[in-house]
Amino acid sequence: MHRVIAICAGVALGLGPQRAVAQESGPSVQIHGFVSQGYVKTTKNNYLGPSARRQGNFELSEVGINFTTQLTDRLRAGVQLFAHDLGPLGNYAPQVDWYYLDYRFFDWLGLRVGRTKLPWGLYNEANDVDAGRVPILLPQSIYPVTSREILFAQTGAELYGDVRIGAAGSLEYRAYGGTIYVNTADASPQLRGFEVPYDFGGRLMWSPPVQGLRLGASLQAARFDLDYEPTADEAAAYQAAGLLPAGYAGNVSIALPVQLWVASVEYQAQDLLLAAELAREYANYKTTLLAPEVRTTIEGFYVMGSYQVRPWFTPGLYYSVLLPNIEQPIRKRSTYQHDVAMTLRYDLTPNWLVKLEGHYMHGTAALTSALNGNQPLDDLSKNWGVFLLKTTGYF
Amino acid sequence: MRAFDVPVHLRCSRRAGLALLGLGCGSVLTAIAPAASAGETRDFLLIVNPASSLRGAPRELVADAFLKKRTRWPDGEAIRPVDLRSDNGVRWRFSELVLKRSVGAVRSYWQQRIFSGRDVPPPEVDSDAGVIAFVAKFPGAVGYVSASAKLAGVAELAIR
User: Per CATH, the architecture of A2-394 is what?
Assistant: First the structure.
């Protein structure tokens, strides 16, 4: 951790303002990077790590560096290396975050192949980009940071473009298909296999002739196939309940087709940013156990605003609600989570920022039992708070 | 001016909001109002490479060019925008009048695009002379300089 802080300070203080030099003809490489160190302290419940202990939790850090080159007027290539630590996740294991070849035939048609960020909602692609937003945590009802491995990037191809539609403004479209590579290093040791046989979707973003307004719709469909080996206790429980199939050989298979949509609106005028989004995710669990299929519908929405009061100071607010299964009655505390957040962002230099953030949480839907002594979510505290401090250097 | 400080003329324009609330700086409104139309402002000049036949362009086209939403001029030439540094007052004026976003908002836009692998921002240079040299050198280049800059080897582009 201290090493990360040292690098952070080095980036911010040593490199100073990044200044791209006027390019000479021929390909040149742009190099950009960032490093972040955060701190999380919660009241009552552990969140994102062992955060409720007295000293809080410093396991909130990221580091990345990318290289981009314009090979011709139309062809670009890029790659980003990334490592992070988020409680039990990440552990600084380096990974290739994204890489691509991008050929832009026209402004209205481009093709990208490689591993690319998934374009759903307003901010999914920017979920790692602390410098590109005000909150430390984006609204977790739609952008859960703990699902980074699954939600952030796909490997395949993408078509994109910007289309002028006369007096109606302009459209930006993205359409993609491929698979999602999931690093299962942090997963349960009982997990025996994880595959995503398909993943496709798209996003349409309309900029009507109202300066600063964007309206968007995103769709995504994917299927997650996994095999796991139940513990002896779990297997015994399944057997007692009559759930084990005739050919049970120690593994249980799960197929999980998921469909997701997001409706988005954003308004940006000079220093003011307002945004709101509503998302639903339909999941249908099919297992080899002799159990009925389980359908869940997750719903999330938020409203958010920020205003840059001074070039160095931007406060922001949001209200976010997560309902993990609207097919079920919303009564118990584990069936909802309301989140009121306030952030203060300080840009100390053009390459170094510090953020303070506080959350008031009502409900436990976004918590995990594993981080809370394996207690059921309904036994955890209903009203709790989160305080975060984060600093990021970038160039 | 300290790095990242607000240019004096923009501090005043920020107060325009307070003036609307009757909290002072009333005369600012009349001073700022004409500048709301980019075509009328003389705070900066837009310049293009002289090989370009373009001498006028809609504000939206120029904004899209600097945000790299458009990559080609109408004649098919690749657009090569160049920016002044983010602490330059001319850039603040250009950003507010043409891009309709503060420099901070534009920086956030580029941070999102840089680290999500979408694109990289235009190169930045220190001075009017740097912008003029860049624009004069590269076909398709476009930049902006202070209204008092001496133009040589470039052509002016009017915002329609």
Answer: Beta Barrel (2.40)
